[in-house]
Write a structure and sequence with these properties.
Layout (H helix, E strand, L loop, with lengths): L24 H23 L4 E2 L2 E2 L29 H4 L1 H8 L2 H10 L30 H22 L8 E3 L2 E2 L6 H18 L2 H8 L9 H14 L2 H23 L10
Antiparallel strand pairs: 1-2, 3-4
Helix pairs in contact: 1-4, 1-9, 3-5, 5-6, 6-9, 7-8
Keywords: Membrane, Transmembrane, Transmembrane helix
Protein name: Succinate dehydrogenase
Organism: Nocardioides humilatus
Length: 270
């Protein structure tokens, strides 16, 4: 083999690695956790049921633009003719953003493709082309998926606002009018989820470049420089926000599923 760690100019060491620590633990954990999420999300996306329990809408199905259950479509159903799950219409955008994310690339390259599985550990591949060929060439679309992620974040924020609204049969005032607000465990979970979603989206490397990239003189652009410093601080915690938002999305969807399938009742505060 004449490529990778065995290429010309590299130290001629036949061992896969000289590391004595448990270097395989990190990629294995990533493989198990991320793989579990992928399986769960795939099942839920194709299920096309138990995604709405008023006033909660699963983030996997938001916005619900296909043939959706009553009350779940706040933006109409322009794709009502779509024969498959409504989630498959929208999930391509947040999924595309995550799959092309710089941090997630590192995570699944190491855990799933072993390229390389860890620092100073030889990879099993005989050649390396990076992201210059299909399908990895599509990773360059990350900056465009970021704009879509912002739109999805705004919609999920609107869902949280709706989750605070009293349902039609609550606080009746007469003549079909209602008053008061709704506050349940689902409301808090959705609020926490959208917070992590925004932290993950705004801490993105592409966001950092968009607000402050390609500037020759920061002093001439004080607003963009200030935004760049804020995003830079968030960017240092981007991996953490990536995992937090991944867990929160799954948790909210699971909670809505349990409510919609009548397994549990919503924990109400007021």
């Amino acid at each position: 083999m004449s490529t990778g760690v065995h290429g010309p100019g590299r130290a001629q060491i036949e061992e896969r690695t000289l590391r004595t620590d448990r270097w395989w633990l990190a990629p294995l954990t990533t493989f198990l956790v991320f793989g579990t999420f992928v399986v769960y999300a795939t099942v839920r996306a194709f299920a096309n049921r138990d995604y709405f329990a008023e006033p909660y809408l699963s983030p996997f199905y938001s916005p619900c633009l296909g043939d959706c259950v009553k009350g779940s479509s706040d933006f109409g159903q322009p794709f009502g003719w779509w024969p498959l799950s409504a989630a498959l219409i929208i999930l391509i955008f947040p999924l595309g953003f995550r799959m092309t994310c710089y941090y997630y690339r590192k995570a699944y390259y190491r855990a799933f493709w072993l390229s390389p599985p860890a620092c100073a550990v030889a990879e099993p591949h005989g050649s390396y082309s990076g992201e210059t060929r299909f399908p990895l060439l599509v990773q360059n679309l990350h900056r465009f998926f970021w704009y879509a992620a912002v739109a999805v974040g705004l919609i999920l924020t609107y869902d949280v606002f709706l989750a605070f609204q009293a349902m039609p049969d609550e606080y009746a005032l007469g003549d079909g009018e209602t008053g008061g607000i709704h506050m349940g465990l689902g409301t808090l979970l959705m609020a926490a989820n959208v917070t992590f979603i925004w932290l993950y989206t705004l801490s993105c490397h592409s966001c950092r470049h968009i607000v402050g990239g390609r500037l020759r003189h920061f002093s001439k652009h004080p607003v963009r420089y200030k935004l760049w410093t804020w995003v830079s601080k968030l960017n240092a915690h981007h991996p953490k926000y990536a995992w937090y938002s991944l867990f929160s999305v799954a948790l909210v969807d699971l909670y809505v599923f349990l409510l919609a399938s009548n397994v549990i009742d919503d924990v109400r505060f007021f």
